[in-house]
Amino acid sequence: MTTVARRKTSKTGREASASRAARPEGRSASVPPGEPGRIGWLYALPALLVYGMFLLWPLARGAQFSLYHWDGLGEATWAGFSNYTATWSDPSLRGAFGHLLVLVLFYSVLPCCIAFVLVGAMSRTKIRGLTFFRTVLFLPQVVAMVAVAVAWRWVYSTDGPVNTVLGWLHALGLPDWRHGWLGDFTFALPAIGVVGTWVGIGLAMVLFLAGVQKIPRELYEAARIDGAGAVREFLAVTLPGLRRELAVALTLTTIMAVRNFDLIYMATSGGPGDATKVPAYEVYNRTFNTGEVGLGCAIGVTLAVLAFAVTAGVRRLVEGKGA
User: From residue 6, how far is each of 166, 224, 312 by CA, in Å?
Assistant: First the structure.
């Protein structure tokens, strides 16, 4: 019996040695057989080429142009970082970045808050026609922003629906609140912000509804057994369960606010005066209207860095270490 056991052990050892010899050098036992990992880069290469050609290369060229004074036609002169300092020293550009902060409130914070309230209410009760309701709310996301701008410009016009309703209220004895909304220095920027809120609610709502469906119903039942009300249930169950969805919603809506150009261009063209100018519009304005290509590129690069920093900060803040 001992001799047989020794023969089996010796045979097993020879087979293991042969297996190690047959294994490709540098590949660990935990790596499954098949094509090497480097082949995967070949599959991704077309997408990487397109990404580099249409995003990374223009961004690099924009960063290069931002270091020069150039009108787009004549000879460029070295400017160093003076275009970047002008981004913050020019009062009109500082105002544009201030308007961006206001739009982030309308585009990102308000839609997420409103969507949270709606989702929190719907998580406690079953609503018929939820799919239709979700589709209607998401519809602004699939409509071109140019069409949205044209539609809302009519809504805000002197004889548009907003002023018509306010006129009826005035006939009932209320104060006359009618305005030329997009032509008013005080109300033009909030009016644009309301449009951004209307567009962003649907996106945040769809993300939160998808997240609520993966929260175990037992958690809601346990909270109700413990006597939790609607607010306590939302804070203890719904909000922690939607932490990742909140990070995604805040990231997408903040980027939407940062790159807001088409709505401003079609609705107000930055007016009245500088009341609705934002950095994305100033990139176009400085590059093509005033011939300050270097300054326009500096604003664009600053926006790209700002968008990256804000979205990274949002994800770190919302998701936390345990996400």
Answer: 98, 67, 62
Q: With contact defined as beta carbons under 8 Å apart, do 68 and 79 qualify?
A: yes
Q: Across the strands, what pairs with 77?
A: 69
Which neighbouring-strand residues pair with 69? 77
In the block, which residue shows the tokens 């042969």? 18
pLDDT per position as a tens digit, 185-222: 999 999 999 999 999 998 998 899 888 888 888 887 88
In this structure, what token pair is assigned to residue 249? 């919603």
Inter-helix orientation angle 293-319/243-258, to 10° = 170
Please compute, for residue 101, the number of CA atoms within 13 A of its CA located in the half-sphere on the CB side: 5
CA 260/CA 104 separation, integer angstroms: 10
Peptide bond into 279 cis (omega under 30): no
What's the rounded Cα separation, in Å, for the pair 100 and 261?
11
> Please, which pLDDT band fits residue 36 given cuts at 50, 70 and 90?
low
In angstroms, the CA 143 to CA 202 distance is: 12
Taking residue 95's Cβ as centre, other Cβ atoms within 10 Å add up to 16
SS3 content of the chain, % helix, strand, coil (to 5): 70, 0, 25
User: Rounded CA gap, 129 and 318, in Å?
Assistant: 31
CA distances from 171 to 159, 164, 176, 177 (A): 15, 11, 9, 11
For residues 203 and 249, give the distance between their C-alpha atoms in angstroms, rounded to a whole number.
7
* Structural domains of the chain in order of their starting residue, each with its CATH number: 77-319 (1.10.3720.10)
How confident is the model over 136-192, as pLDDT tens digits? 888 888 888 999 999 999 999 999 999 999 999 989 988 999 988 999 999 999 999
Please check whether residue 307 is in contact with residue 255, taking contact to mean a CB–CB distance below 8 angstroms: yes
How far from 54 is each of 12, 60, 62, 76, 119, CA to CA, in Å?
57, 11, 12, 24, 38
* Strand partners of residue 68: 78
**Beta partners for residue 78, in sequence order:** 68
